[in-house]
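hey m, so remember when u said the tokens were messed up on ur end? i reran from scratch. heres the input so u can diff it against urs
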Amino acid sequence: SEGNPQTISLDDRKKSDAKYEERNFLANTAKMALRHSADARRRYDYEWMVRDLFRRGYQFSRYQPNTQTIVLASRQTAKIPVNIVAAQMRSIRNQVTSFRPKYETLPRHTTEESRVQARYTGKLLDYYFDHLKFKKKIKETVTQGLMYSVGGPWQIVYDEQKKEVNVWMVDTFDFFFDPLAESLEECEYVIKAVRRPKNEIIFNQEYDEIARKEVMGGEARLAVSEYKQFMLQALKDVTQYNREEAPTLILFEGDFKIHDEDGTVHMRKVVWTDQNSIPLVYEDTDEDEFDYCLYVADLNPKEIYGESWMKHVMPINRVVNSLESSVYDYNYRV
């Protein structure tokens, strides 16, 4: 049927056996790194989910440890949420992003040609600011920073087809890195996990042909983080089970530092799904640093993640909610 991959032939199996190094790196390095990073960040994922729900107005939600579910609201008594957090967050965000930059570049030389090139460079930067929707990206990143202590990251790439720079904003829940690192630059690896349609993966000619044939169908989970998956199901009404006509998978894109014998470092890009034993992409590049930029809004010494602004404001908001709810119960008691 349409969209189903072909079965693996005998020749493909021989080619697959020849990819021992790629198999070994994917199984023993890439997938293990993802698992360790996801386990190390589990506590943060739960706290981020609670803060995001609180910001959205679900300020009386409770976690049920027995069923591992979250009750968004309770109707036993009057609950009056006064969303001070959202109001203050909007005020802070609007204040720090109330700018409209106008780029002006200086010429390298005193010649007329250099001055013209400098003017065109400024116009190009103005174009990128509008074309790449930096205003919206900055607002979203600041919001993430207030909730999670970090924002983004932004992935900066060069589009070979369009011949221009592009900037992708990655969900903080979908970005994993070395849990032992003290800064993003010190990480030994970073991994991005995004949900993509199955047909986009199996028909992508840039991916390894044998690896594409290993992708047999969609998967039920919506995100690597179970707490992000809960929010997708509860807030966006996204079902966990894929429709047959539009199956999706989580695609992992990892950048790993490879240390050479001469002391230099280069990057190895690996792309895979959970169904792959051979990576879709296995490529060594000349780059020696990650193409991600992470906004750090709150600092913990020698750590990447901080405690966040919102963590310390929520208790005050809960006190106000409790007082207002008590007043309402008293005034409108039967």
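this time it looks ok to me. The two ends are 64 Å apart (CA to CA). if urs says something different then somethings off w ur setup not the seq
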